[in-house]
From TrEMBL:
<feature type="transmembrane region" description="Helical">
    <location>
        <begin position="160"/>
        <end position="182"/>
    </location>
</feature>
<feature type="transmembrane region" description="Helical">
    <location>
        <begin position="238"/>
        <end position="260"/>
    </location>
</feature>
<feature type="transmembrane region" description="Helical">
    <location>
        <begin position="131"/>
        <end position="153"/>
    </location>
</feature>
<protein>
    <recommendedName>
        <fullName>Multidrug-efflux transporter</fullName>
    </recommendedName>
</protein>
<feature type="transmembrane region" description="Helical">
    <location>
        <begin position="353"/>
        <end position="373"/>
    </location>
</feature>
<feature type="transmembrane region" description="Helical">
    <location>
        <begin position="317"/>
        <end position="341"/>
    </location>
</feature>
<keyword id="KW-1133">Transmembrane helix</keyword>
<keyword id="KW-0812">Transmembrane</keyword>
<keyword id="KW-0050">Antiport</keyword>
<dbReference type="GO" id="GO:0015297">
    <property type="term" value="F:antiporter activity"/>
</dbReference>
<dbReference type="InterPro" id="IPR050222">
    <property type="entry name" value="MATE_MdtK"/>
</dbReference>
<dbReference type="InterPro" id="IPR048279">
    <property type="entry name" value="MdtK-like"/>
</dbReference>
<feature type="transmembrane region" description="Helical">
    <location>
        <begin position="394"/>
        <end position="415"/>
    </location>
</feature>
<feature type="transmembrane region" description="Helical">
    <location>
        <begin position="92"/>
        <end position="111"/>
    </location>
</feature>
<keyword id="KW-0472">Membrane</keyword>
<feature type="transmembrane region" description="Helical">
    <location>
        <begin position="421"/>
        <end position="439"/>
    </location>
</feature>
<dbReference type="GO" id="GO:0042910">
    <property type="term" value="F:xenobiotic transmembrane transporter activity"/>
</dbReference>
Amino acid sequence: MSIAYYGPHLRATLALGLPLVGSHLARMAIGVTDTVMLGWYGVEELAALVIATSLFQILFFLGMGFGIGVMGLIAAAIARGDEVIVRRSTRMALWLSGIFALLVMPLMWFSEPLLLAIGQEPAVAALAQDYLRLAGWSLVAVLGGLTLNSYLAAMERTQVVLWVTLAGLPVNAALNWMLIFGNLGAPELGVRGAAIASLTVQTLQLLLLIGYSAWLPMARKYDLFQRFWRPDWAELRAVFRLGMPIGLTLVAEGGLFAASNVMMGWIGTRELAAHGIALQITSLAFMLHLGIANAATIRVGQAKGRGDAVWMRDAAITVTAISLLIAVFAILTFILFPHFLVGLYLDASDPETPVLIGIGAGLMFYAALFQLTDAMQVVGLGLLRGAHDTRMPMVIAVISYWLIGMPVAYGLAFVAGIGPAGLWLGLVAGLTLAAILLMQRFWTGLARGDWTRDTRPV
């Protein structure tokens, strides 16, 4: 088939995916702003942020399954013209997201003993708890906003998601500048200042999304917030059964990276700080793939709602090709400009900076190694979520990341004595296996006709 044949799919995918890529990058940029500014403030504070956000992200990943899972349900329901399911699924996803965020807050409030128990330095653990006791409350806003993002994206209103996220960037930077360093008469709060800035921005973004979702003319027929307090137990169970495996899948992957943070902390504070910078750079590339994978979920969900296997196949081929091109660009960038990329996060006048740049630049080579497989595993997950297949991907993730990736990382880093590079080779191993198994599952299921049957969770 010619490139022209895929033209409509390419245009539709980019129209959906590029704003989602932009919104993911903008959301990531808030974290980058915190990292850069705390990197200027001090190495201990930067290390504390790395370990604190590792715990926050584990909990976020577990809870975000509801908001992500509902995207495929909504897209399929809209394609079928089922307004009731759109309303019920979204509303119960918001319920589950809020309940989850409140239930896990004690883990962040009392995080210092947990961090000490896993071998972190006392000063770093104390600073991390200071951050989490404030930033932890933003989990309600982040998970609620994620669900509304899925709701709007399934209606192909992804541009709004982008603009709302972008609006938070200058606010976060300004608040960080004031509260971390004590500028304009504000108190100098260090890591707590970064936490307050993030909490403020994420709350404002949620309020904007709520307001837009209530106002949007094409969404008024869904009556999303009418009698919002009323439970719908059947749909809550359906969203839970679809979303919880997604959350556990994300925890399996995110936990691999978080565990690498913990193990890097065993090696040293400098290594942990440099590792955090390298991971954040690779996360920026990952956000590109994640936005395309979100578009894949919507496109496959639409095809599932119509029962159109050919359309689903062509949409999947288009998404995969786009993500592969992004991966090639990321590989070249990481190999050609590692010192420059790591140096962006550090104060050139700090005597620690040359050491951190040396460590971080060395890790960027290994980051380049897993770009292709990282792209394919996240796209594979996006395709399967659109097909409402979430349980087996969870099993694949656990096997790939924890039975393969983690033992390889520990064995190479500590048993073989390779150190930081060994940890990153373990990441490569886990992501590669996941990519192979997930893509094989999607294409095998499509060939059998599994994904065009009605398989809503009950």
